[in-house]
């Protein structure tokens, strides 16, 4: 059988996928940066599985879109569509460690219990003004503008805090028309604003010294190994696609530095 997707840049086609407009927006916003394919093994470009019960199975599709550019080591989207069971877009931009830039992170998750939505520009190194000041100064007004329109997402683990910015937008919404309206009227424009700001910061970023780059690399490694270790999607992905595939996906694709 011919593989369904040959390149990490091929369009993700999953009918009914809740988050398609968000990925489309991000891909369009990246076009001026001349994205090139990022190497992703075929078994991770497109994977099908099953969930639900024997009598009422639900088809699951997981796809990966990814690219790299002059300043981005890896941009990748993990896309999961499982009908009423789950619909997910986890999107991370990994800059090269030779630039003093945070990560762009979005976690847009729909489960039977509701939507879990997270957006942030996450620092690679903490307690370092040179790394965070110009980002947070510009991020906070955007965060304040949108967060007043959303319910609080609730507490996050203490150990996770170094990896977040004070502009971490985090909410839980009910399924149904009210949640959908907030996704259209708040989450979508917030996603655009966070991404616009990020791409502005990227445009003006210049290469740092080798000593600084080394510090950034250490920070990026710490961040990505934390994310790989604590990936909240691990149990879900293992249920859909098996334990071995999931571990390999997490370590070799999603958080691969
Ligand atoms: N999260 C990932 C990847 C996913 C993914 C790679 C491939 O890092 C999905 C998919 N996140 C995902 C799923 C859940 C969450 C939860 C499926 C629900 C897990 C469950 O309830 O079974 C933000 N995401 C979460 C939670 C947080 C985040 C705080 C709740 C964790 C919990 O309740 O234990 N993820 C976190 C974050 C970013 C992020 C801040 C970046 C902005 O990607």
Notes on the structure:
- With 257 residues, the chain is α+β, with helices and mostly antiparallel strands.
- The protein has a single domain, classed as oxygen-dependent coproporphyrinogen oxidase (3-Layer(aba) Sandwich), CATH 3.40.1500.
- It is built from 7 helices and 8 strands.
- The chain has helices spanning 20-30, 42-45, 129-147, 177-204, 210-230, 234-241, 243-254; strands at 36-37, 46-52, 57-68, 72-82, 86-95, 103-111, 114-122, 169-173.
- Strands 1, 2, 3, 4, 5, 6, 7 and 8 form an 8-stranded antiparallel sheet that branches.
- Strand 2 (46-52) and strand 3 form a beta hairpin.
- The two termini are 32 Å apart.
- The mean pLDDT is 97.
- It binds 15,16-dihydrobiliverdin.
- 15,16-dihydrobiliverdin is lined by residues 78, 88, 90, 105-107, 109, 116, 118, 120, 156, 231-233, 236, 254.
- 15,16-dihydrobiliverdin (DBV) binds at residues 78, 88, 90, 105-107, 109, 116, 118, 120, 156, 231-233, 236, 254.
